C-alpha cells in the first residue's frame, strides 16, 4: 500500500494508489515492472515475442513467491509465465532448475517450494545480490556458480532454521501460561534474523496463534509477525506504535523493530489486543471443503478438467475434496517416521488409490483397524521418483469412533 504522502516523482506505477484507474490492483512488484516493459515495447514498436515476453519467467516466479492472488490478470500472467519458464527460462533460472529435483513441468507449487527458497536464502543468510546475479547471468559459468552458492545457502538456512525452531519450542514448553495465551511471543538473543519470518509462520501452523518472533540486532529487537485468518496483525501493531521504532506490513504478516526495554510492555499490549479481538473459536483451524467426491470418480478425464482451473495459488487454491466411508486397502504404512502413506478404497469395495498425509503418522493404527473413516484432500500427480499416477494429498482424516 502506498504511504499517505507519495514521493515527488514524474510517474508512480502503483495500481493501489488513490484515484488509480488501472483495472487490476493485485499485481506483484515484478508484474508492475513487466507492465512498464510492455508499455516501453509498444511505444518503441518492439517485437513483444522477442523483446518483452521473455521476461515472463521472472513474472511467474514473482507471482508465486509474493503470494499475490492468482486471479484476473495475475492468473493470465502466471499461465503464460509458466509456459515461458518451462519452455525457455533465462540462463540463471535454468541452472537452478537443473540443480533441483527434476519435474516434468514447473507449476506455481514447484516455484514456491523449489525456486523461491533458494532465491530467498541469499538475502536471508548472505546478500541478495547473489540471487540478482543468478537471474541476470549471461555467462553459463556465472549461472552455475551462483546456483551452487544458492544451493549451499539454502541448506545452511535449513540448518539454522531447525536450531531456532528447537529453541522456540523450548520457550513455549517452559511457558506455563501458554495454554491461556492467544498469541505466541518469542525472543532470542542470537537467532538469525533471516529465518525469523519462516519460524513465525511455522509457529502459526503448529499452534494456530498470531506469532511474533524477535532477536537482538545491534542493540535493537528486530522481528517478524505472522497471523491466523481473521486477525489483523497490522492493526495490532498500530495499537503498539508508541512502543515500536518501526513497523510495516499487512493484515497477515509484518515486520517490526523495538528497543529491548519496551519488549515486556509490547508483549502485554499485543496479547491484550488479541484477547479483545481474537475469539477462542477462531484459534481452532478449520479445513474448508469445496466438494464431496467419490474415489471412483478420480480419473484421468477428471484430472484434465481440474487442470483447466490452474494455475492454482492464493484466491484460486486447488479444490479440496472430501470422501466418506473409505477403508485401508491393506498397504498403508509410515514413511520417514512422520508421514502416513495411505492406500485406501471405498468401504463397499473398488479400485485402491494411494495418498500421502504429511506429518500424520499417528493415525496409522486406526487406519489399519479397517474401520471406515473420512478424508479431505487435494488430487495431485505423484511425481516422486518419476511417477505420474494420481494420488491424494491428504489434509486431514476423521474417525467416527
Keywords:
single chain; alpha+beta; inorganic pyrophosphatase (n-terminal core); Diaminopimelate Epimerase, Chain A, domain 1; OB fold (Dihydrolipoamide Acetyltransferase, E2P); five-stranded mixed sheet; five-stranded mixed barrel; globular
Helix and strand topology:
Elements: H1 29-43, H2 48-51, H3 56-65, H4 72-87, H5 91-99, H6 108-125, H7 129-135, H8 140-174, E1 184-188, H9 196-207, E2 211-217, E3 220-226, H10 233-238, E4 246-250, E5 253-258, H11 263-277, E6 291-292, H12 300-307, E7 321-328, E8 333-335, E9 339-346, E10 353-357, H13 364-368, E11 373-382, E12 389-399
Parallel strand pairs: 1-2, 6-7, 10-12
Antiparallel strand pairs: 2-3, 3-5, 4-5, 7-9, 7-11, 8-9, 9-10, 11-12
Tell me what you see in this structure:
The protein has 401 residues and is α+β, with helices and mostly antiparallel strands. It folds into 3 domains: 29-156, inorganic pyrophosphatase (n-terminal core) (Alpha-Beta Complex), CATH 3.90.1640; 175-283, Diaminopimelate Epimerase, Chain A, domain 1; 291-399, Nucleic acid-binding proteins (OB fold (Dihydrolipoamide Acetyltransferase, E2P)). 40% of the residues lie in helices and 19% in strands. The protein is built from 13 helices and 12 strands. It has helices at residues 29-43, 48-51, 56-65, 72-87, 91-99, 108-125, 129-135, 140-174, 196-207, 233-238, 263-277, 300-307, 364-368; strands at 184-188, 211-217, 220-226, 246-250, 253-258, 291-292, 321-328, 333-335, 339-346, 353-357, 373-382, 389-399. The strands form 2 sheets. The chain has a 5-stranded mixed beta sheet. The protein has a 5-stranded mixed β-barrel with strand order 7-9-10-12-11. α3 (56-65) packs across α4 (72-87) and α8 crosses α9. The longest helix is centred in the middle third of the chain and has 35 residues, at 140-174. It is globular. The protein starts with 28 loop residues before the first helix and ends with a strand.
Amino acid at each position: 500500500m502506498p504511504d499517505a504522502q507519495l514521493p515527488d516523482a514524474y510517474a508512480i506505477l502503483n495500481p493501489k494508489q488513490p484515484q488509480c484507474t488501472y483495472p487490476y490492483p493485485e499485481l506483484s512488484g515484478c508484474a508492475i515492472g513487466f507492465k512498464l516493459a510492455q508499455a516501453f515495447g509498444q511505444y518503441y514498436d518492439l517485437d513483444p515475442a522477442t523483446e518483452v515476453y521473455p521476461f515472463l519467467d521472472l513474472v511467474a516466479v514473482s507471482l508465486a513467491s509474493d503470494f499475490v492472488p492468482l486471479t484476473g490478470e495475475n492468473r493470465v500472467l502466471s499461465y503464460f509465465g509458466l509456459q515461458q519458464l518451462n519452455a525457455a527460462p533465462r540462463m540463471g533460472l535454468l541452472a537452478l532448475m537443473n540443480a533441483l529435483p527434476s519435474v516434468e513441468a514447473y507449476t506455481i507449487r514447484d516455484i514456491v517450494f523449489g525456486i523461491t527458497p533458494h532465491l530467498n536464502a541469499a538475502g536471508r543468510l548472505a546478500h541478495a545480490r547473489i540471487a540478482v546475479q543468478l537471474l541476470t547471468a549471461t555467462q553459463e559459468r556465472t549461472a552455475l556458480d551462483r546456483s551452487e552458492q544458492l544451493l549451499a545457502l539454502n541448506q545452511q538456512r535449513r540448518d539454522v532454521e531447525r536450531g531456532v525452531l528447537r529453541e522456540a519450542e523450548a520457550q513455549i514448553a517452559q511457558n506455563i501460561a501458554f495454554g491461556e495465551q492467544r498469541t505466541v511471543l518469542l525472543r532470542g538473543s542470537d537467532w538469525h534474523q533471516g529465518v525469523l519470518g519462516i519460524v513465525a509462520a511455522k509457529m502459526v501452523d503448529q499452534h494456530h496463534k498470531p506469532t511474533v518472533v524477535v532477536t537482538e540486532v545491534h542493540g535493537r529487537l528486530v522481528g517478524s509477525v505472522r497471523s491466523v485468518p481473521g486477525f489483523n496483525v497490522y492493526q495490532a501493531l498500530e495499537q503498539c506504535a508508541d512502543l515500536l521504532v518501526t513497523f510495516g506490513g499487512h493484515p497477515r504478516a509484518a515486520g517490526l523493530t523495538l528497543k529491548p526495554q519496551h519488549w515486556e510492555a509490547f508483549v502485554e499490549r499485543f496479547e491484550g489486543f488479541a484477547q479483545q479481538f481474537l475469539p477462542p473459536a477462531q484459534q481452532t483451524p478449520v479445513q474448508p471443503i469445496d466438494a464431496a467426491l467419490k474415489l471412483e470418480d478420480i480419473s484421468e478425464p477428471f484430472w484434465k478438467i481440474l487442470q483447466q482451473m490452474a494455475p492454482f495459488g492464493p484466491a484460486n487454491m486447488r479444490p479440496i475434496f472430501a470422501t466418506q466411508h473409505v477403508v485401508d486397502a491393506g498397504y498403508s504404512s509410515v514413511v520417514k517416521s512422520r508421514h502416513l502413506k495411505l492406500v485406501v478404497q471405498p468401504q463397499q469395495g473398488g479400485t485402491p488409490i494411494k495418498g500421502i498425509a504429511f506429518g500424520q503418522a499417528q493415525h496409522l493404527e486406526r487406519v489399519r483397524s479397517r474401520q471406515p473413516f473420512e478424508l479431505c484432500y487435494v488430487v495431485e500427480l505423484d511425481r516422486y521418483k518419476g511417477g505420474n499416477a494420481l494420488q491424494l494429498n491428504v489434509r486431514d482424516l476423521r474417525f467416527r469412533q
